[in-house]
Amino acid sequence: MSSTASRTYLDQFPAEAKVIKAAFWSSFMALAIGGLLGLVQALHRTDVLRFIDPADYYTVLTAHGVLLAITFTIFFLVGIFTWAVTTSLDRGVVDIRFTWAWYIMMVVGTILVGVSILGGVVDAIPTYADVLFTFYAPLQAHPAFYVGLVLFVVGSWLAGADWFRTWWAWRKENPDERIPLPTFMALTTTLFWYLCTLGVALSILVFLLPWSLGIVDSVNPLLTRTLFWYFGHAVVYFWLMPAYMMWYIMLPKLSGGKLFSDPLARVVFVLFLLLSTPVGIHHQYLDPGIAEGYKFIAMTNTMFLLLPSLLTAFTVVASMEHGARQRGGTGYLGWLKALPWRDPVFTGMALAGLMFAAAGFSGMINAGMNINYLVHNSWWVVGHFHLTVGTAVALTFMAAAYWFIPQVTGKELWSRQLALGQVLLWFVGMTFMSNAMHRSGLFGMPRRTAEPQYQGFNFEPAVGTVGEINAQVALGAVLLTVALAMFLLNMVLTSFNDDSDSLPANTYAGTLSGPEDSPAVLDNLKLWTAIAVVLVIVGYTLPLASIVDSGGLFGPDISGFQLAIETDPALVLESVREVMP
Ligand code: HAS
Ligand code: CU
User: Fold this and answer.
1) Which residue ranges does the record assign to the Cytochrome oxidase subunit I profile domain (predicted)?
2) What is the 3-state secondary structure (H, E, C) of 430-457?
3) How far does the centroid of ligand 2 lie from the alpha carbon of residue 71, in Å?
4) Which listed residue (128, 356, 385, 554) is catalytic?
């Protein structure tokens, strides 16, 4: 075995490394399929290449959204949080069989969900789930879809329990020590995940699943929507927190320095625990049936929630600057040149951070109640989340994988050049695609439609044309797909690589200001959880009560929307005439 200094994660924790590797590969498989479907949609929508039936568009869109936003992200998360907890506590999980159990549960859930969606295009499979990744009523899926989601989420709950158990075991042996930062990050994230998934669990188990099984006749659509968004905003930070963790504990080291402030990082994660959930109504500014006052409260909370990200921008960039100056960088901005731009792990994460700065601005615009009316349900929103989850998160994960896969397999990365080209190409592709999507939203191009043709209208964007927007989106999508293929190729070839000479050691960044500089109360997880619960009660009790009061717990008698979409114009016209004679 190699010396302590150059030990990889595989050397230290061979059993855990196997589970983490499995989680990463599950994540990559979702990325491969989900990503390819993204290309299919983009080319269809922009009218560049059409081979799917427009009626199947929503099956493809659902698979794209679920596989990327839920499967790819969360499998990667459980992998790196398991790494973070075991590495920073320097001890293995309590019982590796338990670890495999939750992983397998998540896999079974994913397969059920995937097959349910596939039923939408394969006649031999009797399921359907064209409900998009936001799966609220009145769209209805086959029961198998909801059961799969439940298994997946319960699997993630058990993963969280696994991290807590490991920490409790460590605490017994180290009663007086501060929680190491990576573990602190994993635990606070897990706590808000428990809190927010209660909403989606309630929505599925009490309403959507019984409704799809025919046990109840109807549901209150606004109630299931509100419960979804109670979860649906916090889930975006569930995706983001592992990326933030990488920016805090890897980027400073890769830059050649140390994390500027451990206490500030703790404050940030505490703020996410407190504020991630009571803001979900900012996705419902246009929903009738929720009073403006509650929307205003959600907006105010959202604006407070910008703070932890702004603090992150400060701390992470300050750490990078510190690193660059250690490497001989000088000047106000000249230090940027001293950063290790040839390292794909660094460059991928730095570019992801840079794009997140832009994503933050579009998020602030979304969050403004009045300006949201302009962009809601337009392609702008799709541009926003391709910068956030599609780049800040996805690009960070891919860059991190260039470091992690060698750690958990003991094999050297196959090609650093290919990796560097890959992260750059992702950045360029996303610049084209997301910028065009944002702009198109400003002149009203809708999201979630296969047929956004404008021949019948006199359409006048302030800058450019519909054709130019479409061309940029299609070009961006093609570049992203090439980047995705480059990533997967590198991962596969790394797995078959026989070289293991220069593997990086399993470490993370030290700190300039450590936990001893922060008050011990920051580590009081019970206190922060209690406050988070109170904030949720304050933010949600009244809106939920009034939704139930006016729409009923199981709603007025509303049946699910038809899942087959009519594409024959004559029949569409006829059905419109029925409603509006
Ligand atoms: Fe969002 C819609 C508001 C962040 C994801 N968002 C969405 C949807 C998704 C999503 C998926 O208020 C669509 C859902 C659907 O299908 O309908 N979002 C926000 C706000 C933030 C925000 C205020 N969103 C995210 C993140 C996501 C995500 C993170 C995924 C991971 N979003 C909204 C709203 C809507 C919405 C409304 C509803 C819109 C509608 O009408 O439907 C904030 O958290 C953003 C804060 C970020 C910042 C940026 C800080 C900058 C940093 C960069 C540092 C730089 C570095 C690199 C490290 C303030 C941290 C330096 C490099 C060098 C070289 C020096
Ligand atoms: Cu949100």
Assistant:
1) 27-515
2) HHHHHHHHHHHHHCCCECCCCCCCCCCC
3) 19
4) 385
124 located within any domain: yes
Closest Cα to residue 154, out of 97, 217, 92, 103?
103
Would you say 234 and 73 are in contact if contact means Cβ atoms under 8 Å apart?
no
Q: How many domains does the chain have?
A: 1
Q: What is the pLDDT of residues 132-160, one digit of tens each?
A: 999 999 999 999 999 999 999 999 999 99
Per-residue model confidence as pLDDT tens digits over 183-209: 999 999 999 999 999 999 999 999 999
Query: Is the pLDDT confidence value at 302 over 90?
Result: yes
Residues with CB under 6 A from ligand 1: 134, 236, 239-240, 247, 282-283, 302, 305-306, 309-310, 312-313, 316-317, 320, 350, 353-354, 356-357, 360, 363-364, 366-367, 372, 375-376, 381, 384-385, 388-389, 393
Ordered alpha helix ranges (H), 203-279:
209-212, 221-232, 234-249, 251-254, 262-275
Between the CA of 385 and the centroid of ligand 1 the distance, in Å, is: 7
Q: Is there a domain that residue 329 lies in?
A: no
Residue whose CA is at the smallest distance from ligand 1 atom 21 = 363
- Residues lining ligand 2 (ion), CB within 5 A? 233
Tokens representing 478 are: 């093609």
In a domain, 89, yes or no: yes
Domain of 25 in residue numbering reads as 18-177
The residues pairing with 378 across neighbouring beta strands, listed in sequence order, are 446
Residue 128 counted as domain residue: yes
Catalytic residue among 45, 64, 233, 322: 233
